[in-house]
């Protein structure tokens, strides 16, 4: 699922009286947004336990990752609505929209979130602070954001010719290969659409307690009806896949989604891929596409890992590189004291794609931002492993 249109809120504005209220109350909401988010999820899961069992990733909930993502998105969107100098939060909205369609989120669920989120705001800040006027102002913020996302998500569903939410497909595991102690590659077959290089699929498994849990995994080889994913064993879903799912078994996968895709794939300007750890998966997907199409595009691939032994997709990457004479690859291993240094490479006019943990991405983005104009890349695109909020500020 992919569209070239963007979920912009540039032409959306709050009512003047609500804009002043948001400006006045944003500091209080921002200071308490972590508590508000925790209260919101506790309230919503208490009323709708099926959401925690079947839609939300329980690992993210336990670690607080999902709450951080919600806090960042709501506060960031509100601040951008009231600050004329703030950038359009289009990247934030694209990322949320693609995650939503990969989970089969539908319009009616926005009402559930609204009711429980605003109950949490009142509980945390108090009814004396959240007056009827304040509630109305924040309601307008929420529904502007929701309307932009709902419209975008309907377009994404339509791009694959499916009804909203109808993205889950039963798939058969036809190959399972442990490529390292921590990473296993699975090949899945079913009624799956053609993914774009860099996209992911949500995998759904039924755990022993009966809960269906979901996790997104990048697709490292693209073809309709057949997705190849590399899974690092970390959390309930990946552990279940490794220990309980074998060749011939049936699980669920969603139609491909994700906004980190190889844009203008036929361009001839330089391409730079930078990843760490299992963040290599979308990059391997892009390399796979370049190899399959016989691309001669000049490409630099920089990958950081703990050690050569833990470089999970090293063999797969090496095979792809043999088919790509214009690709230069550099592996950086912490055991050897080697770190990714983008500044030493010529990135002029390049399209840069990043994927990894938030600390790694923050460091690389800082390095890129510090490059002089005559050495700066043309564009920078990024993806994270899991919900994080540092990119959204």
UniProtKB/TrEMBL annotation:
The lineage of its organism: Bacteria, Bacillati, Actinomycetota, Actinomycetes, Mycobacteriales. It holds the Pfam family Globin. This is nitric oxide dioxygenase. It comes from Corynebacterium marinum DSM 44953. One of its GO terms (biological process) is cellular response to nitrosative stress. InterPro entries: FAD-bd_FR_type (IPR017927), FNR_nucleotide-bd (IPR039261), Globin (IPR000971), Globin-like_sf (IPR009050), Globin/Proto (IPR012292), Riboflavin_synthase-like_b-brl (IPR017938). It comes from the Bacteria. Its EC number is 1.14.12.17. One of its GO terms (molecular function) is FAD binding. Residues 166-263 form the FAD-binding FR-type domain. Keywords: Heme, Iron, Metal-binding, NAD, Oxygen transport, Transport. It catalyses: 2 nitric oxide + NADH + 2 O2 = 2 nitrate + NAD(+) + H(+); 2 nitric oxide + NADPH + 2 O2 = 2 nitrate + NADP(+) + H(+). Belongs to the globin family. Gene3D superfamilies: Globins, Nucleotide-binding domain of ferredoxin-NADP reductase (FNR) module, Translation factors. PANTHER family: FLAVOHEMOPROTEIN (PTHR43396:SF3). Residues 13-154 form the Globin domain.
């Amino acid at each position: 699922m992919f569209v070239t249109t963007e979920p912009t809120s540039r032409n959306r504005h709050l009512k003047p009286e609500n804009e002043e209220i948001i400006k006045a109350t944003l500091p209080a909401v921002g200071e308490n947004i972590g508590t508000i988010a925790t209260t919101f999820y506790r309230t919503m899961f208490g009323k709708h336990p099926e959401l925690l069992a079947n839609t939300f990733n329980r690992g993210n909930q336990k670690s607080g990752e999902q709450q951080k993502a919600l806090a960042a998105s709501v506060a960031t969107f509100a601040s951008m609505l009231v600050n004329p100098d703030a950038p359009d939060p289009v990247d934030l909205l694209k990322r949320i929209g693609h995650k939503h369609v990969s989970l089969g989120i539908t319009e009616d669920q926005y009402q559930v979130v609204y009711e429980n989120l605003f109950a949490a705001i009142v509980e945390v800040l108090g009814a004396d602070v959240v007056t009827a006027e304040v509630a109305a102002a924040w309601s307008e913020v929420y529904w502007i954001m929701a309307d932009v996302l709902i419209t975008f998500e309907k377009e994404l569903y339509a791009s694959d010719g499916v009804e909203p939410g109808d993205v889950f497909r039963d798939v058969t595991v036809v190959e399972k290969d442990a490529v390292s102690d921590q990473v296993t590659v699975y090949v899945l077959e079913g009624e799956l659409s053609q993914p774009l290089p860099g996209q992911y699929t949500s995998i759904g498994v039924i755990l022993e307690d009966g809960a269906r849990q979901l996790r997104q995994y990048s697709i490292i080889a693209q073809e309709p009806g057949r997705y190849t994913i590399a899974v690092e064993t970390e959390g309930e879903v990946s552990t279940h896949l490794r220990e309980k799912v074998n060749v011939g078994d049936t699980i669920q996968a969603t139609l491909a989604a994700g906004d980190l895709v190889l844009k203008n794939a036929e361009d001839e300007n330089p391409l730079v891929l930078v990843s760490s750890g299992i963040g290599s998966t979308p990059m391997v997907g892009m390399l796979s596409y370049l190899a399959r199409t016989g691309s001669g595009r000049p490409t630099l691939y920089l990958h950081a890992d703990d050690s050569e032994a833990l470089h999970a997709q090293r063999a797969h990457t090496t095979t792809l590189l043999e088919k790509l004479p214009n690709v230069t690859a550099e592996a950086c291993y912490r055991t050897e004291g080697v770190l990714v240094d983008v500044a030493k490479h010529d990135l002029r006019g390049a399209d840069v794609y990043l994927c990894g943990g938030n600390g790694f991405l923050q460091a690389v983005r800082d390095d890129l931002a510090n490059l002089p104009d005559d050495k700066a890349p043309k564009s920078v695109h990024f993806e994270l492993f899991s919900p994080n909020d540092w990119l959204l500020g």
